[in-house]
Amino acid sequence: MKPAGSGQRERKLHDAAYWAAFEFERARVLRRRTSWCLIGMLALLAVSGWGTYLEYEEAASGKGPPIDMVIASALDDIVLWCMLVATLVYVRIGAPQRQRLVRTITIATIAIATAATYFEIRRSLQWQTDWLGEPVFGKDPRVWACRYALFTHTLIIWMSIFIVPMRLGESVRIWAWCTLAYVALAGLAAEASGLTIAAYGSLAALTPLPAMLFSHWRYQRFDAQFRHDDLAGRFGELSAELEQARRLHEGILPKRLRHGPVQLRYVYEPMREIGGDFLFVPEPDEDTPANAAAPVYVVLIDVSGHGVPAALAVNRLHGELTRLFGVRGRAGGRGPSAREIIRDLNDYVWLTLARQGVFATGLCFRIESNPKGGAGSGGSVRVEWCNAGHPPAFLRSRTGEVHRLGATSTMLGVVEGEQFECESRHIDLVAGETIVAYTDGLHETRDQAGQLLGLEIIEAIVKQGAARMDEALVQAASRHRWGRATDDTLVVEIGLTDERPAQRPDAAHARASAG
Fold this sequence. Notes:
By secondary structure, the protein is α+β, with helices and mostly antiparallel strands. The protein has helices spanning 6-13, 16-61, 67-94, 98-126, 141-163, 168-188, 194-206, 209-251, 307-330, 338-353, 440-443, 454-464, 469-480, and strands at 258-259, 262-269, 277-280, 296-303, 360-369, 380-388, 393-396, 402-405, 425-430, 434-438, 489-496. The protein has a six-stranded antiparallel beta sheet. A five-stranded antiparallel beta sheet has the order 3-4-5-6-9, covered by helices on one side. The two termini are 38 Å apart.
């Protein structure tokens, strides 16, 4: 059976693992139900054998049916018993797969129905009785034989098809061959007239139809239930894997929110459990003195795509950034510039990810003490920034003015390293001023009418100067959004405080939730 729905059909036809599991489970269920069906038929056969024994007792006393009819009944019981036991042994011990099992059921049902019909015709021709075994006179023996054979024919097909769920094609084979066998036996063994054969042949063709439809309905239910269980199992496994991946993904997000006078806050909301937005803040060397003026780096990356593929690319970029800062840190000096970091990232994306159609935007800040003065009260820091196709960041001054820090180069991976033109720019950041950076999931949030949140609204919120602008922007996007989130959202707030940092840096309190 091919389940309804072309999408499901195509997906299942190309999912070899699904079909293998489906066929294995269906074979297991069919073997169990076939076994119970065979055991039930053996139980009925035991009752029939007891009746044959009673008939023999009556025939021996001269009061019952003729001995030829008793012999026909005994042969019927023996033949059917051998067929049923052989089939049951094969099903239980051989444990055939689905196709062989269906073939076995088909052959066994046709053989049993044919044998039972033949012996029933012989019995009925030799002794005409009603359902209670009382003699009936004035009836054509051939008609009576066809009637009894029809009952046997219908009972066997119903037991086989009704108990074991089958596709229509599978049950049609049983129905067609059994019907042909019944018509042939009615004509050859019973020697019935053409009208009788036509009448009872039609009944033989119609009576199994309800069982066939019920069997097909049960098969569809089994198919739907298996598909549900399969999807539920896969969903559970995938959820567990994604939960583990989410923990690993959050583990690469920065844990420090204070680096000297520089204070960092961020909110990360992936569209799914994990996503392609990424914030990297390298930890200073453990050997660096606490009072050393080491530069602070903040790198934002937004990988094209969503979900697991984007997260895999993020993981590779995290490893590359860790390597870059480790190598350049061991080289000594003042550390790499923001421009050098962006150029190195472009080389990496161009050589590795771009071949798979994965690109990224990047924004790098390098923050160091301003040569003109310290970063204490009234002091400032020097911020070098380089924007590779990333949405513009916003700088909010103490007076409430907002300035955009736009792109200074193309996105990462689009242009080969030698052709990648990248420049960096510098600004001075004083205490009380804030830089707000974000990924495109923020300003591309759409409302019910399809309107974007837009840069103007983001700029207006930044201009208002909330205590936590990162949270204020995410809340504004949530209020503007209609339906589920369609992209990851990362908002970063970089500020300069005149407070002295504590001996131990604060732990991150990023909020990550499915959009």
